[in-house]
Amino acid sequence: xxxxxxxxxxxxxxxxxxxxxxxxxxxxxxxxxxxxxxxxxxxxxxxxxxxxxxxxxxxxxxxxxxxxxxxxxxxxxxxxxxxxxxxxxxxxxxxxxxxxxxxxxxxxxxxxxxxxxxxxxxxxxxxxxxxxxxxxxxxxxxxxxxxxxxxxxxxxxxxxxxxxxxxxxxxxxxxxxxxxxxxxxxxxxxxxxxxxxxxxxxxxxxxxxxxxxxxxxxxxxxxxxxxxxxxxxxxxxxxxxxxxxxxxxxxxxxxxxxxxxxxxxxxxxxxxxxxxxxxxxxxxxxxxxxxxxxxxxxxxxxxxxxxxxxxxxxxxxxxxxxxxxxxxxxxxxxxxxxxxxxxxxxxxxxxxxxxxxxxxxxxxxxxx
Length: 368
Ligand SMILES: *Cc1c(COP(=O)(O)O)cnc(C)c1O
Known about the structure:
The protein is of the alpha/beta class.
């Protein structure tokens, strides 16, 4: 039995983080001071991306990527049927059409074998998601995209540090989109980072995030109907402080995931799979329960046992807006996405937990 309730997620904010934020507050430079630049430089160096732009969250990063590529009405964008709903919302925001593709039931990532059949003459881009922190098969997706001349925006919101064949995700596609929400490995409160290797795109993002302002001959010109998608400097200071220990955080999370992987032995529970050549950063530890179990009952059982648990992500075409707009037979067309949505259970995994707690949670999972 656990002595205290273990929430599903809990950000780790230490004294150094707090001091770094307070220093910015005391400086009076609250917006786009030096920490925004430091955070962007850290990201581009860490990932090996030419450019990184700090934005207000991991949804504005996806949105600006689509805007920068000129994707809009009449265009189709391929998205996985199972993800956090923001992945599809941004396609709607630019007036384009979502083309949903089912996921692989073992990895919860888009089923690469089903992408080609979803491509039409109107397809402009693919937004593959590195779901729950596991790198998707981005190499295969890049070769499909190349063959069909499609843009790729990697939704790496959960996957900072994930790799395929030792190359970091977020550097394969035209854009890499990261979230710094408190549910992710490191946080700025709200925040996002958009990476690209294309300097024209990067320049455009920096204009669009800041009201369409471009400096020309030392003078501010308003060259586009831009957004205000800036990150404040105290948010950047928090993320920049946390990112110094990212490798350690990822190591701790891997150690906790290893406890789950070796200790959960319930035949009614299917454990997550990490394919050859790819790594998992364990933003979420997500298991599948079998047909003999009801998701709502399992979640309630876990909460009664002081374990914060929830479903992992949405079967997007089954959500009210998408159900009404697209009228897709989602149970039939996206069986794996629907299964992950209705049989998925996310359990606590974050660096503040210790192995003993994860061991105890595993034992409770074994009694279901
Ligand atoms: C968290 C998340 C987002 C959105 O990020 P925010 O910073 O909350 O806007 C987008 N896509 C995926 C896959 C996510 O997990």
